[in-house]
Task: inverse folding
């Protein structure tokens, strides 16, 4: 069981070069997470990561960015707390495990690695606008559905 | 240069089994960091880590805990945001690099590895009640001196 | 370009609990890699990893095992050189990047994370008996085809 | 207890820019390890790492290089098996844990982090020409003493 004080942390993962639709959806996911009082964690860079961070930050939410490199300045400007891992793709493992549930927007191979680790470690994973086909990941149609489902999944008892 | 929005994050590192004096000092460091508006990052477990976290949390500060294991429940009860790395001693590297400056209270070999990585990556490192002898780390006498010096060091231009 | 002295290292990844067919194929892949003079790298544990290691070792090949835990004794008995990372799923990144090409035999989510990182970092990835659907990974029918294709891919110029 | 098949792996760590004396000693350590049938692991780059690798390789030994970056071409030319971690300073943890005992030649903060992790995880650590002061690390005077002591330490029962 999660200790009471720990904040709910939801990960948004996805392409650094998404479509315009992907950007819009990511921003909405970020906004809805902030409104629900959740902390957002992303890989800290551009595209879906930046859009979700912007949406979250503008709605008053707290944004974590877990970077692959060791330079904090590489983070997008909406990140509150930067974790400059210097661990390359090892950072994907950290994003997946810091999140209590994951929402992917579009996304390619890096996203796929995070989806796989997320599911492997018992986290609920939701896919928006995704071409990824991974058994156990749940396709959803809207940002609202993704956020509602992610928060619902935590209530049902994820415990790491 | 650090982007304006990024919060100041200071690391407190040290033994999981400190002396009573060490516990008291760690708690005071945590409290002073909160009062200065800094985020606290620790390794998330007991001893110095828990004491600093408690001090910070009780003064209204935000506390990050970067755990060696993958179970978020292993975090001490004062952690707001848990990063369950599952990376064992690799987590020490993450604590050192998430902090923009480091304050060690007592501490043994694990702490020493964090001091070394901190200094190696250009971070200012301050030692309280420490037997560690590391060129570049700065011995200070009180919690207040450590916090003041750590925040001062950031102004002088740490940029990752 | 790869320096001349560096040995060819091929990764075999897959389930810790494969089918009998999977075990047989993994062993044959290991044997063929040894006969081709390649070093085998796996995640060092059981199932496909142990079968490939056994096949390789019995044919005189060198076997690396990159463990998720920090206890070298957890390695299967066919590993020559153990890397006890203690990095949990971070070890999957290390397996994928130590291999110059990857051959997956069956496999689930852990394997999927390695396939994703392998492709993401420009490595050729071949799938045997796999239900995984990943754009860029190449389905092959036999152990011999997988090994031939993996070695062929390196000649065409993988350079990390 | 170590399984019988696993090779003895000894780590040589130290500065990328050692003195001429340091280079000579590192080369001798590498040679003596090869003559004793041990595998050498280093951080794969220049200075002490390259000198030890050269000494080992020229005496017919096997050389592992665990790189901080993800480009295998960054390895010194004496490395047989490259592990391009892409994990930055996280690689120091991997060098320390892949070695069953560690020999440091000169060395600064990076070396210190490896010494600390090595001791923390129960490995014997020997220092040659070192200014490092770490409780538990053993100062020795010659390459021969270091290699003999390292191999002796393993017999006495390191088990990870």
Result:
């Amino acid at each position: 069981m999660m200790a009471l004080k720990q904040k709910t942390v939801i990960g948004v993962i996805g392409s650094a070069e998404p479509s315009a639709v992907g950007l819009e959806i990511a921003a909405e996911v970020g906004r809805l997470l902030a409104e629900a009082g959740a902390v957002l964690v992303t890989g800290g860079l551009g595209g879906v990561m930046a859009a979700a961070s912007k949406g979250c930050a503008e709605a008053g939410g707290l944004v974590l960015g877990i970077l692959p490199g060791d330079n904090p300045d590489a983070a997008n400007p909406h990140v509150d707390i930067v974790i400059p891992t210097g661990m390359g793709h090892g950072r994907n493992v950290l994003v997946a495990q810091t999140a209590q549930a994951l929402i992917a927007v579009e996304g390619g191979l890096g996203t796929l690695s995070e989806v796989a680790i997320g599911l492997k470690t018992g986290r609920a994973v939701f896919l928006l606008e995704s071409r990824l086909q991974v058994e156990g990941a749940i396709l959803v149609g809207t940002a609202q559905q993704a956020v509602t489902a992610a928060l619902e999944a935590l209530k049902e008892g994820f415990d790491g």
Q: What stands out?
A: The longest strand of chain B covers residues 9-14. Chain B touches chain C through seven residues (CB under 8 Å). Chain B has five helices and seven strands.
